[in-house]
Write a structure and sequence with these properties.
about 90 residues, mainly alpha, 2 helices
Length: about 90
């Protein structure tokens, strides 16, 4: 299982558990609505933070792959140029 899927499941499970706890707790409707509003804002902020962290990691991986790809291309071009410059045997 990928870390992203695990993290998404963890966040969703935590949010559902918190909502169930609030809905089943003995309090007035106004209090419950206030708690749900606060919780939804908190979940949205945490989700946004997590998405940004995943995006940053993905950007780093893509950048590293691009750099390695460029290095490989340079090595291949160097080998090709050496082959061209060597005298050919007949």
């Amino acid at each position: 299982m990928s870390a992203g899927r695990f993290l998404a499941g963890f966040i969703v499970g935590g949010a559902l558990g918190a909502i169930a706890g609030v809905l089943l707790a003995p309090q007035s409707g106004d209090e419950t609505r206030g708690l749900l509003t606060d919780m939804s804002k908190d979940v949205a902020e945490k989700t946004d933070k997590t998405v940004k962290e995943i995006q940053d990691k993905a950007d780093t991986v893509v950048s590293d792959l691009q750099q390695k790809g460029e290095e490989i291309i340079e090595k291949i071009q160097s080998i090709i140029n050496k082959q061209k410059n060597e005298p050919q045997e007949s």
